[in-house]
Specification:
23% strand; alpha+beta; 158 residues; elongated; 6-stranded antiparallel sheet
Amino acid sequence: MSSHAPYDPRSPWPLWLLGALAMTVLVVVGLARWTGWTSVGQDAAVQWTRALYFEDHASGAVQVRDARSGEEVARFEGEQGFLRGSLRALIRERKRRDLGPEEPFILQGHVDGRLSLRDPATGSRIPLDSFGPSNLALFMPLRGDAFQISARSQGVKP
């Protein structure tokens, strides 16, 4: 003879347990979003940087100029969804803070081979390698001589 009560499949306690778990998850996620908490992985050291201006050209293209020399580095014709979307996110943050386009964006190459686009005016950063190799390839030509100069100074072959 067993002293335990038989299991009743109509018992409400499993539903209460699932409900409590769901509420706990919602509260934790809500608190994390409300307080602005984010978990950001540690970045590899920056190997090289290049300051760039991105401007809309009269033809509808995106013109990229080197901030130091002022010369055109590249011109992206056509839709360029990823490029425009990345820039739009950074520019939106500048507009939210009432900042203008005076300060260039910084393209950074990290020692582990990753690229990121950073806005020093707002502190925003987009890790370009997170969006796949085809989107990363859009930004690779923009590194220009910055890679060769930094690599040579550290004894690395490009």
